[in-house]
Amino acid sequence: MHTGEAYHEVIQASRRDLLTRSRFQRLALSLLPPGGDVLDFGAGTGIDARTYAAHGHRTFVYEPAASMQEYLFVHCRDELEKNTIVAVDSPQSCKVTAVTANFAVLNHFADHAKLFADLAHIVADGGFVLASLLNPFYLGDARYGWWRGNVFKLLREGRYSIPSESNIHRFAPRILSRAAAPYFRLEQRSPGGFRMATQLYMFLLFRRI
């Protein structure tokens, strides 16, 4: 298990992760209206939050893992002092234009129906939830026995989980779309087509109805 600081160093040293994060941040910033507030849900060490704040978006950060939160307070010290980043103990304590959840945060949930119902109370009408999830169709994982053992379950049921310490679940987009209704509609999935087989992460954009 990484400490917050160790995680921060590892993920910042990974070229693939840096490219994925850059794509996610660009998409989020292109969707946010000028000055729109955002909740970074599962903010980790605050890497995304600092970028949003630097672009003029007050950013609320929710991070339940103590080790991550501890380093977030170090990494985002200046922004926290200026209140351009605001730490919250519960997502329900803010009202925002958008919620972002990067790097598989939502893969830690077995069921998203309650989560989306809760987020509906904090996201303004017309706002959005943007999530980066592990792509269950990524063929790079086909070399692993756990992927091959679950591929038919994925196609049949749209979901599967692997018993492990991290308790990670994998979902087809339709499962998340069903959980988000009736509060959000799935507006965009990236990548599309055959590129779904080549990308470790998929980005799902849900629009508040």
Automatic annotation (TrEMBL):
It comes from the Bacteria. GO terms for molecular function: methyltransferase activity. The keyword Transferase applies. InterPro entries: SAM-dependent_MTases_sf. It comes from Dyella telluris. It holds the Pfam family Methyltransf_23. SUPFAM superfamilies: S-adenosyl-L-methionine-dependent methyltransferases. This is Methyltransferase domain-containing protein. GO terms for biological process: methylation. Keywords: Methyltransferase, Transferase.
